[in-house]
Amino acid sequence: MFRLLLLLFLFPVVGFSQNTAKRMLEHADIAKWKNIESSKISGDGRWVAYVVKPLEGDGELRLYDAQTEKTYPVPRAENLNFSQDSRYLAFIIKPHQDSTMNMRRRKVKKEDLPKDTLGVYDLRTLRLSKYGGVKSYQMPEKWSGWLAYLREPVKRPAKDTSGFVWKKESEENGTRLILLELEEKQERLIGYVKTYQLARDKARIAWYTTGGDPEQKPGVYVFDGETRQTKQVLAQKGNVKQLVFDRPGNQLAFVADVDTTKARIRPFGLYHWQNTADKAKLVLSPGASFLPKDWLPSENGTISFSKDGSKMFFGIAPPPILQDTTLLEEEIVNMEVWSTNDPRIYPMQKVQLDRDRKRSYTCILHTADGKLVQLGSPDVPEIRLSNEGNGNLALGLSNLPYQIQVSWDAEPINDVYLIDVSNGKKEKIATAVHGSPALSPVGKYVYWFNAIDTAWTAWNIAKKELVKLSNNQKVSFADELHDSPSSPNDYGFAGWTTEDDYFMAYDRYDIWLLDPTNQLKATNLTNMRAEKIEMRYIRTDPEERSIEEVKPLLLHFTNETTKDEGYYWYDIHSGKKRPLQQGAFMYSRQVQKAKNADRWIFTRENFQTFPDLVYSSDLQKIKTISQANPQQSEFYWGTVELTEWTALDGQRLQGLLIKPAGFDPKKKYPMITYFYERNSDLLHQHRTPAYNRTVLSFSQLASRGFLVFIPDIPYRIGYPGESAHNAVISGVTALVDKGFVDKDNLGVQGHSWGGYQIAYLVTQTNIFKCAESGAPVVNMVSAYGGIRWESGMSRMFQYEHTQSRIGGTLWEKPLRYLENSPIFFIDKVNTPLLIMHNDKDGAVPWYQGIEFYMALRRLGKPAWMLNYNEEGHGLVKYQNRKDFQLRMLQFFEHYLKGAPKPVWMEKGVPAIEKGVK
């Protein structure tokens, strides 16, 4: 590896001035780059906390005080939360990474490695308190004064001074839970706790302990933080799961198995506690008459309460299928039956096996009278609630009649039901809906985008009638640039206004107000189509359910022509738009607002500008409060611009051209082309140096003297390969004609869909001196009948309807499958190829890469195939991403700059040296 790195570091890049202190971005330099994670603003808006994390090494939490404009660092801290009253900031401090890795190298036992520490900052005094050996913690969401954390297991003497025998702390027995009163710094210790939960709105904390502490018997407890009183609501030992409060903390639900026998099917019961009661009530037990025969309360079903607490939702399930334990291993037949009548093909069943085992069906407990009602069922498995659970109706969806079509039809298809929550009665309101129906916030309408007629549709529940919200007469609410043989997607929607009065949907540019009663005609609120400016609503309150028309709306805009972005305030009544931010930047669409103050944080970025955090009190005057990567100034850094050209078929196309630092139009530069669908809208995206999963670091290429070309590709259905050729080759030659591109040193790189198109291109042209093709499909004939192993889905749908864009079955259009398959034209390839295809690829079966490699090898073409063992479609392991980036860079610098060939290209890596050298 040292020799490989040395070749890169010593090889010069021409075209840069020798009179500057800046230098090229080397492979090792990328590890210094940091990302900003977990940014949060306190409720009063004074404080902003965020984590700056490098690719290698320890991260750092930074706490910014907007009042003093000072920043306070906390090394190795993450998982941060402000208290509701903005007085405290809690976080987890991780052990030193280097120290932990050195201990692991010395084979130190896992239980003896350093543990996490809980840190609590008092924001009034800036005093930091630390609590070691922490496993997890919870900060209250809507109340203040307390914090709870669970300790890691601690070794202690078997007996204390009084002779009491202690159990061993463990995952099975539980560990110590600490209730920390923040103001007084007082702690309440509860022993052998396995699970705990804080209520949302009120100072209530619940936990389950296995006992073994002199002061704690086994069972479930509820602590009231206001009265300081603790109540034992279940006085039994067992397996307790899903402690769930209602919002005010006045009710608690959980499932518990308290059976002491060794029954293989565990008899979980459902418990419900109300604050007026001393004990939790067993409201549903196995064998209850409410349950279908042999069914059980589900230990895996999600428990929740309606907002008003009148309903508790839970799951029931059929009994699990168990193996006959009397059979010996050699007597068990492991065999699969794949039937053409299976609703889901067998590989899909295997992928979804855990989900199927844990599947449960939604039921309701009406908390006032204890009435139980079943909503979900095997024939209508998916249930969606209305009005935050308060509604009298629920929505039921079933795709069961259409599951077999999933193999070749990518669109969701559902039968739609309304269900009366008082008795479970179902009414089918729509059949074979091509879309994903949902309930409006208050529950007056069921709405969806109908993929067949590309229109928004609503079912008026009170009138029992179907209403077309949009008719596509003025504009289309479906993707205008859609170019695959499927129904186009919608542009999305902003939401419903209060009381479900209006629905706000997007077209390509504007926001429309649609009346579900059809009394008022559709109204264009923003009217920016003529200027080609896209307007989108930003929700700054995470709890917002409906859009209040009386308040100004914060909108994000994008100029389709210049790609500039910014923000507007918009008054829905007057139609006035007040600009706040605008410029040659990409502005974040997630703007965080302080809960109780007009204080905001967001990011803006462009090719030169890292997306540091920006703080503002009015969204006009801004202050950049983070500086994550000041080292960027040490390196050559490129620029990016929008470029246009005429394709071979006469279309006018766009793309991005990244130019190296100190670009001189009189010089000639090597150029690498990368593409994947359309990317020109990302003109202002910052390209942070990184060891990417599949793509070269564009910033590093520019720093090292490369041009990078990223063309948009529009597609003609049935001709995906030819479409790529039409756009890419015309774009490359248009740039070569400008005089600054070295036509003898052109490379191309891409992955997956891009990898396929590169494999196709090199059978049609010799314009590229070298190419990297990642996870390519080279044989559409064999790939068509294959499996996407990660999802278990058939690959047919993507050829007939989606990205592969053939537009028909193999037997309907066999020639198109052949013509678009590079494998049948490999003998035309004269371009050296680097292929990356991994043996656990769940999207493109890696035998496609093998077919590619074997054909090239048989024909004597120069090619190298990289297989990162146990990796999937894109690299996940950090060491593999780092290695792949280095090898790609070496490959391109060898062919396009004349760098010496690295050892792995010259001699390969024999199996005997794998993982060693």
From TrEMBL:
Residues 728-898 form the Peptidase S9 prolyl oligopeptidase catalytic domain. Signal peptide: none annotated. It comes from the Bacteria. Keywords: Hydrolase. One of its GO terms (biological process) is proteolysis. Gene3D superfamilies: alpha/beta hydrolase, YVTN repeat-like/Quinoprotein amine dehydrogenase. The keyword Lipid metabolism does not apply. The keyword Membrane does not apply. This is Peptidase S9 prolyl oligopeptidase active site domain protein. It comes from Haliscomenobacter hydrossis (strain ATCC 27775 / DSM 1100 / LMG 10767 / O). The lineage of its organism: Bacteria, Pseudomonadati, Bacteroidota, Saprospiria, Saprospirales.
